Automatic annotation (TrEMBL):
Highest taxon of source: Bacteria
UniProtKB keywords: 4Fe-4S, Heme, Iron, Iron-sulfur, Metal-binding, Oxidoreductase
Protein name: Precorrin-3B synthase
Ranges of compositional bias, category Basic and acidic residues: 1-20
Alphabetized PANTHER family for the sequence: BLR3264 PROTEIN, FERREDOXIN--NITRITE REDUCTASE, CHLOROPLASTIC
Source organism (scientific name): Actinomycetospora aeridis
Keyword Iron among UniProt keywords: yes
Region of interest: Disordered: 1-26
C-alpha cells in the first residue's frame, strides 16, 4: 500500500483546495486530443445499444475502460459529446448510463460482476444518487458478493452481501438487512460531514460512522459466500482499449443473450455467454492467460501533452520482446504524475525527459 493509502482510515487528512473536476457525460475534460467524456456504468452494466453508441462516437479510436469500470470516450468535439449524451439518454433500460432526463451517476458504483444478486442493490444506490451535484466524482461505492473482488478496491463505501459495511477499506462491524440502504446511509453520512473532501479517508471513517451506529446494528463481521451463476466468460481488452470490432462483437453477444458487465479491473464479464463467444472474441481481446493481465498504462504521447514518450507504443514493444508482463503488476506512465496508478503492490514504470524509463516499486496491502 502506498504511503497515502496506508494512512489509517479513521485519521482525517487535509481538506482539498480545488474543486472536483472528474469528467462525466456532460462535464468533459479538455484533453490534448479533444473532449474526454466519462460514463459510469451501474455495477458495470452496459447494454449492446449503449456500447454501439459509445463505439460510434469514438469513431476509429478505441473506447477506454478505467480502473473504476467506467467507459471513456476521447477526442470528441463539444457537439459530438452533447450528441452522444443525448443519444444515450434515449436508450433506457434498468440501469442505463444516462436516464431519460439525461442524468448520469455522479460517482462510481461498482459491483461484483459475476453475481446477479448484486445488481439490484447497485441499481438502488445509483438511482438514489443519479443527477445529484453534491456527490464528489471521486467517491467510490462498491457492492461485493462475498468474493472480495470489489472489496479489494478499498472503496469509500463497500457493502458485502449479507450487510457488512466497510469504510475506506476498513471493516466497521456495522450490518444491515438491506445492502443498498446501508450503502446509501453511509454515503449520506459522509456527505453530511465532508466539507470540501472527496474521499472518506480525508474526513476519517469515525466521522462517518457516528450517525450510522444509531440506526444500524453492530455485529461481528461474517463473510458471505455466493456462487457464480450461469456460463461465465471474462475477457481482457489490452490496456482497457475496446476497439470498434471488439465492441461490435461484444454488442452482438449481448443481443444473443449474454449479460455484459465491465469491471474495475478493466475486463468484460459475459454472463450466459454463447458457446462460441470465446472463439469470436479471439484476437480482439485477451481470452486466456496473457502478459497483458498485469499491465496498465496512462494514455501517454501523443494524446497527453505532458508525456515524455509514447507510453503505450513502448509498452507494446516491451511485451512483444518479453520485457514486460511479469507477475508483479506494472503501470507504465509518461511522466511523474503517474495517472491511473492502481491500488496495491505495483511497479510504476515512468518515462523521463531523457527518453528512458525508471521503475519505482510501490508496496501494497497483501490480501489474506
Ligand atoms: S501520467 Fe503524465 S503522461 Fe501520463 S496521462 Fe498523466 S499527465 Fe499524461
Amino acid at each position: 500500500m502506498s504511503a497515502a493509502r496506508r494512512r489509517d482510515a479513521a485519521a482525517p487528512a487535509a481538506a482539498r483546495d480545488r474543486p472536483d473536476a472528474c469528467p462525466g457525460a456532460w462535464r468533459r475534460h479538455d484533453a490534448a486530443d479533444g473532449a474526454l467524456a466519462r460514463f459510469r456504468p451501474v455495477g458495470g452494466a452496459t447494454s449492446s445499444a449503449e456500447l454501439r453508441l459509445l463505439a460510434a462516437a469514438a469513431d476509429t479510436a478505441p473506447l477506454e475502460l478505467t480502473s473504476r469500470g467506467s467507459w471513456q470516450v476521447r477526442g470528441l468535439s463539444d457537439q459530438g459529446a452533447d450528441d452522444l449524451a443525448a443519444a444515450l439518454s434515449r436508450v433506457g433500460g434498468e440501469a442505463p448510463l444516462l436516464d431519460a432526463r439525461g442524468r448520469d451517476v455522479p460517482c462510481s458504483v461498482v459491483a461484483s460482476p459475476r453475481t446477479p444478486a448484486v445488481d439490484a442493490p447497485a441499481r438502488a444506490v445509483a438511482d438514489a444518487l443519479r443527477g445529484r451535484d453534491d456527490v464528489p466524482g471521486r467517491l467510490l461505492v462498491a457492492i461485493d458478493d462475498g468474493s472480495g473482488d470489489v472489496l479489494g478496491l478499498d472503496a469509500d463505501v463497500t457493502v458485502v452481501l449479507g450487510g457488512t459495511l466497510y469504510l475506506a477499506g476498513t471493516p466497521t462491524g456495522i450490518t444491515g438487512d438491506d445492502p443498498a440502504a446501508l450503502a446509501l446511509a453511509a454515503v449520506e453520512a459522509f456527505l453530511a460531514v465532508r466539507g470540501d473532501a472527496w474521499r472518506v479517508r480525508e474526513v476519517g471513517a469515525d466521522a462517518v460512522l457516528e450517525p450510522l451506529r444509531e440506526h444500524f446494528p453492530v455485529r461481528e463481521h461474517r463473510k458471505v459466500l455466493t456462487s457464480p451463476e450461469g456460463k461465465l466468460l471474462e475477457v481482457l481488452p489490452r490496456l482497457g482499449e475496446v476497439d470498434t470490432l471488439a465492441a461490435a462483437v461484444l454488442a452482438d453477444l449481448g443481443d444473443e443473450g449474454a449479460t455484459l458487465r465491465v469491471t474495475p479491473w478493466r475486463t468484460v464479464v459475459l454472463r450466459d455467454a454463447p458457446a462460441d463467444a470465446r472463439a469470436r472474441l479471439e484476437g480482439l481481446v485477451e481470452t486466456g492467460p496473457s502478459p497483458w493481465s498485469t499491465l496498465s498504462a496512462c494514455v501517454g504521447a501523443p494524446r497527453c501533452a505532458k508525456s515524455h514518450t509514447d507510453v503505450r507504443g513502448d509498452l507494446a514493444r516491451a511485451v512483444a520482446t518479453g520485457r514486460a508482463g511479469g507477475l508483479l503488476p506494472a503501470h507504465w506512465v509518461g511522466c511523474a504524475r503517474a495517472c491511473g496508478t492502481p491500488a496495491g503492490p505495483v511497479a510504476v514504470v515512468e518515462g523521463t525527459p531523457g527518453g528512458t524509463y525508471r521503475t519505482i516499486v510501490r508496496a501494497g496491502k497483501v490480501s489474506p
